[in-house]
Design goal:
22 helices, three-stranded mixed β-sheet, mainly alpha, disordered C terminus, disordered N terminus
Length: about 525
C-alpha cells in the first residue's frame, strides 16, 4: 500500500485553505483537469458550502468508507455539500445525500430549539440551502411547532394553491386577530426566538405564511416584524449589517401597519414604527402611507414625537423639519374633517416645536417661516409663543438682515398678542422698528396716529402737544354682581392705568423723534421706542 502522502494534489477551497488529497480522489480530479485543460495541479473550488470546514467534513466521509456522524448542528452543512458535489446514488450506493435525507426525515420530531439551530446554521450558505429545498423543509417544521402552541382561531395552518410544494402551504389565519391585540401579544412567545435568524430566512418564513409584502394582512406578523427590526437595530452586530437586506421586511411591516391603521396603533406607536423602519431604507410609497396616517392623528402627537433627527447631516440642521412640514400639510389638508379644538391643539404643539428648533444655527429662515405659517390663523388664540420662538431664532441668528427680520415678524398676528408680549416686542432691539410700531398700534387703536411720528420724510407733526388720548370702555353685566360704587372704582383704576401707559408711550415717542431729528439718520436705522 502506498503512502497516502505520496504524489499529493493541492486544492484551494474558496481561496481560504489548502487541502491535500491522496491518489484515491486524484483520478476524478485529473479527469476534471483534462476537460478544463488545466496544466498545473492546483484546483480551486468557489462557492463551496461551508468553505474549508464543509470540504473537510466531506473528505472525512470519503476516507471513512462512507461513514460520518450526522447531528442536528452539522446536517444542514453536510446536506448542502452533498448536493453541491452531486453525491447521489449515481456516484455510489453509499452516498451522503441519502444519509442526510434519512436523518432529516425525523425533523418533525426535533425540538423547537433544534430547528432554530439548524436554520441559523444555513445562513452562511443560504443560497445553496434554499435551492436544494432545505430551508423549505425547516420552515415547514417550524410552522408546525408554532401551530401546536396556538389557539386554532388565532393561528391556523391552511393550504395555498400558490405554494411550490405541500410543505410550503401553511399560512397564518388573520381571523380574529384585530379583535384582541393584547391577547395576540401575549401569545406571540416566538418573537424573541426568531430574532436570531437572518433577514433572508425571515423573508422565506413570511412567504411561507403568505404574509410578505402586500400580502401581509396579519397583525401578529406585523408586530413580530416591528419587534424583529427593533431588536436588529439594538444588536451588538448592527455595524456589520447590510441594511438593504432588511428593506423588504421593513416594507412588509409598514404595509401591515398602514392596513391596520388607527384601530390598533396609537399616534406615538406610529411615530415609533416610522423611526424603526426608516433605518432600513423604507420604500417611498410605504413611508408616504405611514406619514399620511400619522398626519391624520397629529393632534395626538407630543413634542418628543416631532423631534426627529435629520440623520447627522449638519447642513440640514439638527431636526428633520421637512418631515414635520409634511405632517402639518397632511393634517391641514383634512381641514374640513378637523374640529376647531383639535386644530388649536396642533397650534400649541407647533408653537412649542418652533421654540425647540429656533436655536438651530443651520435652520434656514424659509424652513422656520414654513412651519410658523403652516397653520390657519384660527389654530391660535394667541401668538405670544410664536413671538417667543421668533425671538429665540433672532437671538441665535444675529447676522440676519433687516429684511429677513421683517419677514419673520410678518407671520405674527399683532391683534392676538397679549399686552405683555407686545410691550416686550416693542422694547426688543432685535425686532425691526416698523414691526414694533405696528404691534403697538394694534394694541392701542386710539393712538393709530402715533405712526405719524415716523413720516417718510423724517419730519414730525407740529401738533404733538395737541395730541389727545381717548379711552373707551364697554359696559357689561358686571353691575349685576357688584355695587355701583365698587364698579366705578374698578373702572377708574383701569382708566388711570391705561392713561399712564399711553402717556409714557407718547413721551418716549417725542424724545425719540427729537433725537432722530438731530442725528438725521435714515429711516431704517432709527432706534426703537422703548416702553416702560
Amino acid at each position: 500500500m502506498s503512502d497516502p502522502c505520496d504524489d499529493l494534489l493541492q486544492i484551494h477551497v474558496n481561496g481560504e485553505q489548502t487541502f491535500f488529497l491522496s491518489q484515491k480522489l486524484r483520478r476524478i480530479v485529473e479527469q476534471q483537469k483534462r476537460e478544463s485543460q488545466v496544466s498545473n495541479s492546483l484546483i480551486e473550488i468557489d462557492g463551496f458550502p461551508g468553505g474549508p470546514h464543509g470540504f473537510e467534513l466531506v473528505s472525512r466521509f470519503c476516507y471513512n468508507n462512507g461513514v460520518v456522524l450526522i447531528t442536528v448542528p452539522n446536517v444542514s452543512l453536510l446536506y448542502c455539500c452533498a448536493a453541491f458535489l452531486e453525491m447521489t446514488e449515481i456516484a455510489s450506493t453509499v452516498n451522503l445525500i441519502h444519509q442526510t435525507e434519512v436523518f432529516l426525515e425525523g425533523i418533525f420530531y426535533w425540538s423547537w430549539n433544534e430547528i432554530l439551530t439548524c436554520l441559523k446554521n444555513c445562513e452562511p450558505f443560504f443560497d445553496c440551502a434554499s435551492s436544494c429545498g432545505l430551508i423549505e423543509k425547516l420552515i415547514c417544521s417550524l410552522l408546525a411547532k408554532m401551530a401546536q402552541n396556538y389557539d386554532v382561531n388565532l393561528f391556523s395552518l391552511s393550504s395555498s394553491s400558490t405554494s411550490s410544494s405541500p410543505e410550503m402551504t401553511h399560512s397564518l389565519s388573520s381571523q380574529g386577530v384585530c379583535e384582541n391585540a393584547s391577547l395576540n401579544r401575549a401569545r406571540a412567545w416566538w418573537f424573541q426566538d426568531l430574532t436570531i435568524l437572518g433577514p433572508k430566512i425571515i423573508e422565506q418564513f413570511l412567504k411561507a405564511l403568505g404574509c410578505y409584502g402586500t400580502e401581509n394582512n396579519n397583525l401578529i406578523v406585523t408586530r413580530f416584524l416591528i419587534h424583529y427590526l427593533k431588536t436588529t437595530l439594538h444588536s451588538n452586530y448592527r455595524k456589520s449589517l447590510v441594511l438593504a437586506d432588511y428593506t423588504g421586511l421593513a416594507d412588509t411591516a409598514a404595509y401591515g401597519v398602514v392596513l391596520t391603521g388607527k384601530t390598533v396603533f396609537s399616534c406615538r406607536g406610529l411615530f415609533s414604527v416610522l423611526r424603526i423602519v426608516s433605518r432600513f431604507g423604507l420604500s417611498r410609497i410605504y413611508r408616504t402611507g405611514l406619514e399620511r396616517l400619522i398626519g391624520s392623528m397629529l393632534d395626538q402627537a407630543t413634542l418628543d414625537d416631532l423631534l426627529v433627527s435629520s440623520g447627522g447631516d449638519s447642513g440640514r440642521g439638527v431636526y428633520d423639519v421637512n418631515f414635520v412640514l409634511r405632517l402639518i400639510g397632511l393634517f391641514v389638508h383634512n381641514d374640513d374633517k378637523v374640529s376647531s379644538r383639535n386644530m388649536k391643539k396642533v397650534g400649541e404643539l407647533i408653537d412649542m416645536y418652533l421654540a425647540e428648533i429656533g436655536p438651530d444655527q443651520n435652520l434656514k429662515i424659509s424652513k422656520f417661516l414654513g412651519v410658523a405659517e403652516s397653520l390657519p390663523d384660527y389654530a391660535r388664540d394667541s401668538y405670544d409663543y410664536v413671538y417667543r420662538a421668533i425671538d429665540i431664532y433672532l437671538e441665535s441668528h444675529p447676522a440676519l438682515s433687516l429684511e429677513d427680520r421683517s419677514r419673520l415678524c410678518r407671520c405674527l398676528n399683532y391683534k392676538k398678542l397679549s399686552l405683555e408680549a407686545c410691550k416686550d416686542l416693542a422694547k426688543n432691539p432685535r425686532i425691526p422698528p416698523r414691526a414694533a410700531i405696528d404691534a403697538l398700534a394694534s394694541q392701542h387703536p386710539t393712538i393709530q396716529t402715533a405712526q405719524e411720528f415716523v413720516c417718510d420724510d423724517g419730519s414730525s407733526p407740529s401738533n404733538i402737544n395737541d395730541y389727545q388720548i381717548v379711552l373707551y370702555r364697554n359696559e357689561d353685566s358686571d353691575s349685576k354682581s357688584v355695587s355701583e360704587g365698587e364698579e366705578m372704582k374698578v373702572n377708574m383704576e383701569r382708566m388711570q392705568w391705561k392713561v399712564v401707559e399711553l402717556e409714557k408711550v407718547c413721551r418716549e415717542m417725542k424724545g425719540q423723534m427729537a433725537r432722530m431729528a438731530k442725528l438725521d439718520e435714515p429711516q431704517d436705522n432709527w432706534p426703537l421706542p422703548r416702553l416702560c
